[in-house]
Every structure is written in C-alpha cells, then in structure tokens.
Amino acid sequence: MTTPDPPPGDTPRPDPAGPSAGPDGLAELVGRLRAAGRDVSARELAEAVWLARLTAPRPRSGDRPEHHEPPPTRPTGSDEAVRPPADEPEPRPEPPPRSAEHTAPLSLYAPSGADAVPTRSFPIRAPATGALSGLLGLQRALRPLRGYRPPVAPVLGAELDEEATAERSAADGILRPVRRPAAHREAEIQLLMDASPTASVWHLTLERLRQACERLGAFRDVQVHYLHQGPDGSAMAGTGPDPHHTRLRPADQHRDVTGRRLTLVISDCVGPLWQSGGAQRLLYRWAEVSQIAVVQPLPPRLWDRTALPADPGMLVHEPGVGRGMRFVADERHGRAEPPAGALPVPVLLPTDRVLGGWAQLLGGTGTRTMRGAAGWVLPRHPAQPASGPYGGARTPQARLRDFRSGASPGALELAVHLAAVPLYLPVMQLVQEALLPDTGPMQLAEVLLGGLLERLPDTVDVPGPRYDFAPGVRELLLEMLDRGAAELVLKYLSEYVTRRFGKGMRNFPALAVARLQGQEADEPTVPEDPDGGPQADEELFAQVPARVVRWYRPVRPVPGRLDEVERLLGLWRDRRDRQMLFDAQALAEAALAADGDGRSRHLLGRVLFARANTTEARRDPEEAHRLLVRAEGLLTGQEPATAVARADVRHELWRQDHDTRWLYAAVAGLAEMSDGGELATRTARRLRMGRVLLDLARTVPEREQPATAAVTELRSALALLDDLEAPPHRRAGALLDLVAALRLTRGHDTAELLTLTDAAESAAEDSAPLLLRARHERARIHRAARDWESAATAYRQAERSAPRDSHVRCELLAEWGEMLLTETGRPDRAEGILREALTNVTSRAPLRWRLHLLLGTALLDRYRDDRVGGGFLPDVYEGCHLLELAARRAADPATRARSWLTLAGARLDLPDPESHLATVESDYGRALREITEPPSLTAARALHGRGELYERMARPSAALADYRAADRHWRGLTEQGTPVPEDEARATRERAEALAHRERSW
Fold first, then answer.
1. For residue 679, what are the contacts with CB-CB under 8 A and spacing of at least 6?
2. Closest by Cα among 459, 337, 453 to 400
3. Torsion 317-318-322-327 (CA) sign
C-alpha cells in the first residue's frame, strides 16, 4: 500500500528504534541505503530494523517528537514560499481501483502526483489493477510444496497447544496457555529472472510465480533477483532488470548450501550469459548443493536450439539422498551422450501441469518420479555459438524460410501482423491483445528469437528494447498481409499513440490509415521548421506506417530529378519516412554530378540538413556533424531560401560543437538578406535571426545587446506571423522565444512576461512540447521575481506535463530542487525532489552527477541547520558519499571542482574531524586543480576554505598565501562585473589583514 506524503514543510526522518519510524521512515531509510549503493532485500531490511530496536539507546529528553509526527497545522512564514497552494488549478483524475492482493513494480509518485510535493522517492511495489490470469490454478498446482522438507534439521520453536491449554485452564479455573515445541517453516524459494533483452516478455510469468509462491504459505521467504552478465562475463545478480539502476553482486552470493532454498531460473536460455557458458556454470555450482530448476517458456521443439538443450526422461527425487535431483534419460536414439561429470538440471514449462508435477515431486514423501526433461551443465561449461534458436541465415528469403519451418502457426501470424507496426515491446503486446488474443508470450518469443529481427541500440528517449526486421524481411511479410488487416493494425496503433502522448504529437498511424483508404490527410503539410528534426517518439511511430503506405500505395515519381527531390522533402516533413531522404539524396547527388547548378546544391544541402536532424543521425554525432559541414559548404548561393537554409545549418552546427563563430556567421548571413521578397521568406528570416541572437545572448558574457536585438527581431516576426495567418503552434514557439529573450534584458516587466507566456500556452493548444516549455518558462519567471510560492506551483505543473521517465522531467526536478536548496534555504524540501530526479535519470546522463552534487549539499545543509538538535549524522555520511561520486565521475570540470570543494567542508562535520584534516587539504587542492580559467568563484571559496584549514593546522604563512590568492579572485570577479557575495569577500580580506598584522608583529 502506498503511504501518503508528509506535509511539505516537515520531512520525517527514520528512527533507528524501529516501529516509531513508521512507513515514511522506512521509505527514507531504503532511499538512503540505495543512494549509498546498498540494495537491501525485504528480509535484510526487516532484520536491520529488528536489530535496531534491541541496540538503539533510549530517546533523550531533548529529542524532538516532531521528527516523527508532523504537526497538523499548516506551516507559515518561509514555508509558504515553497508550498503550493491548496487549491489545485488542474483537477486530478480519480485513482484507478486497486486490489490489495495484486502488486506490480511502480514508482512511489505517480504522474498525477499528490498535492504535496514529494519529499522522497524510491521504487516500491504498489497495488496494481486487476488479477493475473490463471493465478489460482497455478497456486493450486504448487500446493504440494507445503510438504517440502529441507534436508536439514528443523528449527524448533514454541506454539500454542490448544487441547492442553483447555484442560489446564479448566482445572485451574483461569486461562493458562500451554506451549509445545514446533517446527517452523524453514523452506525458502528464490526466483531468478534472466535480465537479457529477450527475456523482458516473460515478466508476467515471473509475476505469476512470485504471487503464487507468496500466497502459498509454504515458504518462510520468497526472493526475486535478476541475473545479469558482468563486465568480465561472470554471472551477477541484482534486484532489478536494468543494470544501470541496480547494484550488481556476484550471483553466487545468493547460493544456498543448506538445501532450505529452492531456486527457479526463468529464462529462454539464449542470452549472452548463456552463450558464454556463465549461466550453465552457475547452475552446476548451485545444483550440487540445492534444488534448482530452469523454467523455460519457449516451446520444447526449440529447446535444442538454445544454449541449454534438454533430454527427455524421468526426474527422480529421493528425500535424504543428496540435495539435488536424479535424472534417468530415455534411450538416446542417436542423441549424444552427456559429457562426463555433467549434472542434470530440470527444465520445466511454465504451465500448471508441469509446475504442479515438479511440486509433487519435491513435496511428496518417499521416492517420487516424474516425466520431464533436463539439461546438462558442466563445471567448466564451454561457450556456445550465438545463433539463437534459429539459424543465422543471411538473405531475407532464407531467414523467413527457416522461421516458417520451425515456428508455430500463431507465431507466423503474429510476425505477419507485426510487419505493420514499430517493433517496440508494448506495441507488439498491443497487437497480440487486440488482434491475436490466442497468442501469448511464447509466440512473441518465437518471433523475437526467430532470426527475423535485429536489436536496435537503446536510447534515453525511448526506454526498453526496440527491434527492427532484418533488411528485406518486412516487405516479404507485408506480401502476406492484406491491406484491410494492415489498416486495422494501424488503427489500433493510432489509438495507442493517442493514449500515450495525447494530441500533442502528430498521429502518423492515423494519417497512414487515411492514405491507405485513399483519403487526403486532415492535417496540412508541416511547414519546414528551423529547429528541424522529429522527436524520438515521433520518429518511432512515423517511419513504419510510412513504409506500409509506401508498400501498398507507391507514389509515382514526378518528371525531373530536382522536382522529385522537392516532392520527397515535402513528403518527409509530412510523413517522417527516412527512406524518402535517402531517395532524395541519391537523386540530388546525381543532379549535382550532372549539372552542378545552384538549385541542385541548394536541394542537396537541405536534404543533408534534414538527415542530420533525424534520430538515427543524432545517435552518431560525428556522422551528423559531417553531414552538416557538407551541407554548409553546398549552401553558398545568395538566394533568400538558400540564405535561410544556410543559417539553419550554422545554427545546428553551433548546437553540436558550441563554437560561437557559427552563430556570428549565421547572423552575418541573415543580415545580408534584403527586407523585401515574399512574406513567408521575410517571416522565416526574422524568426531565424531572433533565435540565433537569443542563443548568442545566452552564450556571450555581454548579453544585453544581442538579447535586445533578439527581442526586436522576434516582435517583428510575430507581426509577420499574424499577417501570414500561420498555424498557432508557430506563433506559440515565437512567443516563448520572445519571453526567453526579454528575460535576458535589463529592466524587463514581469507582468508582460507572464502575459506573453499565457498567450503562448493558449496558442500551443494540444502540443505537449510547447505546453511543457510554456509552463517551464512561467516557473523561471516567478523564480527570477523571487515569488517562491508561484514558482513552486509552476514547477509542479511543468513536471506533471513532462513524460514520467523523460530526461526533461529530471532536468525540471533538478532546477526546482536547486531553487529550494540555494534560494529558499529549504534543504529538507529539496531533498525529496532531488531524490526523485536521481531515481529516474539515466546513469549515462551528465545531469546524474550534478544531482549527486545537489543532493549531497542538501543533506549537509539539513544536518547543519539541525545541529542544535543533534542533527542526523547519516546525512553527513551519505552526503560525503554522493559528493565523492560526483567529484570522481562527473565529466564537467566545474561540477568536479564544486564537488571537491563541498566535500572538503563536509568532512569537517564528521566525527573526530582532526583525523580528516589531511584529506580535507587534498580535497581543496583537487578542487583548485579542476579550475583552469581564473578568476573563479569556486577557486575563491576553495582558497578561503583551505586558508581556514591552515589556520586550524597552525600554518599561518600558508593560510595568508591562500587568503591573498582568494582575494585576487574576488577582485577579478568584481572587475569582470560578476556578482560576488560581499560577506564572503569581506571575510577573506579581514582574515588576510589579521594574519598580515600578526606576521608583522612577529
């Protein structure tokens, strides 16, 4: 059950005494442990709390109870500055009905959010809607496991003897309980889920097994772990499927040598850990000492093509004879004999009948047998060729022929229907549920492992595994799918796009259905935009429908190569079909080689620019940069359209390498254009100039002049957009650019900024990116005006507008948390928001280490603010851990310098600070070495801090030198016009003067 958030102004802390901590205290405790790299199980957490109850000292009279019970009254004063208003402007939808019995992994804070700002976050199991199909049948099949007796002596305890209690109480006249020795449940079960990409389709199988085992009442503990391949190829285990979000430990740490724990490995046995032999070697070590079996979801006819082929035979369980299971194979009939020294491991189908037979085998008395299958594993199991369950044929015809020879009818029909959709796991499962309900995970796995697909690289924008058909295979499958079925598949896909993204993204599947039916699209062709390419989600759901339309309704090319290039560019902007860009480039290259005139150069430059803005090119920055540089070299004409396109290319080049010379070149090129010409060209020129000047103002130290010029250009562009009767979304983007430019000018009017932002939000209509941008700008406006309450409300609205697991949401949370930390002085409130961001940010994102720095600082500030009441010392330890991670792993030198600086001060808050003085001196030195361009605020603070440290270490000469160096930095910053904290600069001068006076007196 999800616990409610505490009031925003009060952050409860975990009480080491145990029960008084409550659910919120446990939430914070787990969050702190995970942030510190400790991934504890439920059992480990329960044992730690139990032990804390016995070892914790009694509360002192000075302890404050408000740490554990937040006051019911609403805080006032400074708390109001960061607490959202009680009346929410956006009504929240009612939560879906939930069942307390069925659970699924969720985040503590759902997208709808609570009115109170979350103060902490960590992954929990929250109630999920609906029951898993067949759960009761599986639970009934596993019931014989209640009779399983581990091959160790039972642990005796005490239980109530009802008959003896009744007799004694009747004889004595009062109730006298009588207890007797009893054996408690000692059996445990561990579910080990393969974390390979193809195994993601089996998570419902894992969930069914987990719930059935928990409800069975036969096990003292039910554990779930995920099996990963470590960097060295060894078997590792973690509590989650994503290796970047869970701490991996050697899997052998979970091996049970007592025989009390049963282990079920859920895997299709085709992942890299199986191909390398690491999984088989793990099975061998575990099968020697405990009961272990593999739950293989693939159909038995494919088992021989996996890395764990299984022989049919008889499974024999003899209680008291060893701890494994004996296997008697059937007659070989030409099959190879198992190698010497191999151990059998039962291989089970995830059906009630097979799992029930395995339960009877283990739970019955005496020797029991069962028809089944077993795979053979060796202590030094060799690696397998990575061919998967199907052969690695090369040609598309051979791939499809091999797949049809071994696939089930349901798998073949599913593959045919999947040819019309992007191969993204939720979409594939949608096709199954909507059109092929008789198929399930087994058929989907046949398609994934059938040699037809290729795995695409993972991206931050689209979480989860993505696939594509091997070249030529999709076209062969579309030959087997009639147009009506393709239309039906795309209709379901369009509904999925609407449910997931709302109306903020163009529904390309719906447009494809209209084109297949011979209708014109309801939406006009998208105008060419300087910011260019599609979003990752948009491109994901645009390319495949466009290819389906192209297959069933091919468009005849128009006469003339360059006219065809123009047409393909227009179609690409409308359909986002990447193949159209390749076709257009081939035609433009041929025209350039034949004629070499200005039009061919212009069109080829535009095609290359469009290619550089596709998601595929963005994943390869070097390729995208190469395309842009070539495009810039082709766009040399003086025609207005060429000048605008050249400015777009230069602007994009600046976004890639951050060289301001590209911005100056773009400004110069646009300035050379005349103010005459067509209205659309003049509008495009003003928009481009305004946006380039805006980015220039954000980059250069003297920003007033380019920002003012950007305001002028954007106001003119808005007037021209009105004359042009442009679509509302173009006006919304220009309004938001104007707001950003005005914020960079001196003396801007906050009321005008808010009015423009409201107008932009109204013009954005259903465009999710523009709505998010408008709400983000509103939050920044209120923050700059120091209206903390309105800023908190705006940040919350913006955060709700962002996709749940997106990077932009993490950036919003980081900005919000930084405001609470550095500007409102509320580290307790900032902590929860920063933890939420850190939970969702990817391990490869640079933002991760900035969040480590901010969260570590928040923990230290909270400890220092509460030092009078004793503080919470784990805040200091966790803060030091986070800061050291940021200092060592951040790619940005400025982040590393700030982390070392903050870490140096944090170590002085540890117990026995005198023992850390040498380390603190080293941290200050590391911070200074990261700074290469003086004067620097961080350098001034590091030098001042080290000066204080030297005074503490009785080294006045070294302290004086650092104070003087710090003073030079303060003076340099002042000369540059950089605002400096006067109290800190004055403290540096005073300490330098005091030490200099003392030195002269010596």
1. 720, 723, 724
2. 453
3. negative
DSSP-derived 3-state class of residue 698: helix
The pLDDT value given to residue 949: 95
Query: What angle (nearest 5°) sits at the alpha carbon of residue 666, between those of residues 663 and 672?
Result: 140
Residue type at 698?
Answer: R
Helix, coil or strand: residue 847:
helix
| Residue 183, beta-bridge partner list | 156
What is the rounded CA–CA span in Å between residue 220 and residue 214?
9
Kindly give the pairing relationship between strand 310-317 and strand 326-329: antiparallel
DSSP one-letter code for 895: H
Compute CA distances 261 → 219, 255, 292, whole Å: 9, 9, 9
pLDDT in tens, 851-872: 999 999 999 999 988 876 677 8
> Are 770 and 729 in contact, with CB atoms under 8 Å apart?
yes
Round the CA-based radius of gyration of the chain to a whole number and report it.
33
H or E element in which residue 317 lies: strand 310-317
Angle, to 10 degrees, between the axis of helix 578-594 and the axis of helix 561-575?
Answer: 160
Please give the Cα distance from 194 to 241 (Å, whole number). Answer: 8
Helices (H), 672-766: 679-699, 704-724, 728-743, 750-764
- Would the pLDDT of 252 be above 70? yes
Rounded Cα–Cα distance for residues 54 and 16 (Å) = 10
Non-local CB neighbours of 869 within 8 Å, separated by 6+ positions: 62, 64
Distances (CA, A) of 750 to 5, 530, 691, 789, 804: 33, 28, 21, 15, 30
Residue 772 is encoded by which pair of tokens?
């998010």
Among the listed residues 227, 298, 320, 221, the one whose alpha carbon sits nearest the alpha carbon of residue 262: 221
pLDDT digits (tens, 9 = 90+) for 656-688: 888 999 999 999 999 998 877 788 889 999 999
**Neighbouring C-beta atoms of residue 147, cutoff 10 Å:** 14
Neighbours of 659 (CB within 10 A): 13
pLDDT of residue 405: 84
Q: Helix H segments across 424-482?
A: 425-435, 441-448, 473-478
Interhelix angle 847-865/827-840, rounded to 10 degrees, is 150
Write phi, then psi, for 735 (nearest 5 degrees).
-60, -40
- Contact indicator for 933, 951 with CB cutoff of 8 Å: no
Strand partners, 311: 374
Query: Which run of H or E residues covers position 265?
Result: strand 261-266
Whether this prediction's pTM lies above 0.70 is answered by no
Looking up tokens 């609570």, which residue turns up?
114
| Structural tokens at position 960 | 């004086």
| Cα 496 to Cα 490: distance, rounded to the nearest angstrom | 10
Q: Cβ distance 32 to 45 under 8 Å?
A: no
User: What is the distance between the alpha carbons of residues 117 and 812, in angstroms, rounded to a whole number?
Assistant: 14
Q: Which has the closest alpha carbon to 772: 803, 802, 750?
A: 802
Rounded average pLDDT over 161-175: 85
Question: Quick one: pLDDT at residue 1002?
Answer: 67
Per-residue pLDDT band at 963 (split at 50, 70, 90) = very high
Whether the predicted pLDDT of 523 surpasses 60? no
Q: Phi-psi category of 18—alpha, beta or left, where left has phi over 0 and alpha has psi -120 to 50?
A: left
pLDDT at position 783 over 60: yes
* Residue 104 phi, psi (nearest 5): -150, 145
Burial of 680 (0-12, 13-18, 19+ CB in 10 A): middle
Residues 6+ positions from 111 with CB-CB distance below 8 Å: 800, 804
952's tokens: 């503490």
Amino acid (one-letter) located at 55: T
pLDDT in tens, 452-493: 888 776 655 555 677 888 888 888 888 888 877 777 777 767
Q: Residue 260: pLDDT above 90?
A: no
**d(Cα 858, Cα 825) in Å, to the nearest integer?**
9
